[in-house]
Specification:
Mean pLDDT: 89
Number of helices: 11
Structural class: alpha/beta
CATH class of the largest domain: Alpha Beta
CATH topology of the largest domain: D-Maltodextrin-Binding Protein, domain 2
CATH architecture of the largest domain: 3-Layer(aba) Sandwich
Radius of gyration: 22 Å
Low-confidence stretches: 11-24
Shape: globular
Largest sheet: 10 strands, mixed
Distance between the termini: 62 Å
Length: 327
Amino acid sequence: MSLYSRRAFAASLVGLGALASTRGALGQSWPARPVTIIVPFPAGAATDVVARLLAERLRAELGQGFVVENKPGAGGNLAAANVVRATPDGHTLFVSSSGPLVTNKLLYKTLSFDPLVDFEPIAMIGDVQVVVATHPSLPVKTLSELIAYGKANPGKLTFGSPGFGLMGHIAGELIQRKGGFQMTHVPYRGSAPLATDLLAGIVNVAVDFLPPYIPHVKSGAVRALAVTAEERAPQLPDVPTLSEAGLTGVNASSWYAIVGPKGLPEPISRRIGTIVNDYVLSPEGRAKLNPIGVRSLGGGPDVVRKSQAQEIAKWSEVIRTAAIALD
């Protein structure tokens, strides 16, 4: 090796050492101020509850404030766009369901961001089932009775979802197509106002994430006809799956992940991911997530990326066939 080559090699080692030192220092110095966790749905929604649990744990572990900021609107795109525009320094994070993180790419004609490119995945949190619930005043007790009632009373049924293009909307459209009946879709700005209107009988049916409805189903205030996953929900073991209720070919669930803006430094991402995974997979985390209908999953950035790819493959044809398109 020539003298020049030896000097160049030595310089490169020094450079790598300095880079590693800088990255390590970056991870240790963060967070330098309170961190904002943006949530794309209103307070009280399942995503909001999950984010607040994580904020509490991150605050305890890192000794800095973690503030949840709700930014509902445009099916989660408003919040997502805010995160994409944020400085990737670890002081703005995003806890979201799979809609804004992947399926909105299939639904919206134009987006100001690409959910598959413009986020830095940090950790998978868990998944949640969708429930088909009705107000007790509706004279149906099973899914087959709901389908029969819809066929016999065209134009009379309304079904609410937590927003255009969200999992409840997509699942509701697919259920109608599979069942051969029609309901009028009523989109809401999140699960909390939808659950309130279902309890009041303002909307006949809700197709929505399970968590907000668990206590109301148990109390008898609303009636759960089915859950839209392959297995029954452990929180409501008496409620059949759609397949058990006679409607095959519909499997709809959603997952939650925490991500940051593109370019989030790896040491910060790794630090957050370790805390999140340790929590959601711990007995304490499972005990907090299970009662609100969330199954703990855990996993790093690769798991989030794999899940995004699976969602695209799963829903592309369904959304195209159902002609669900949003501006």
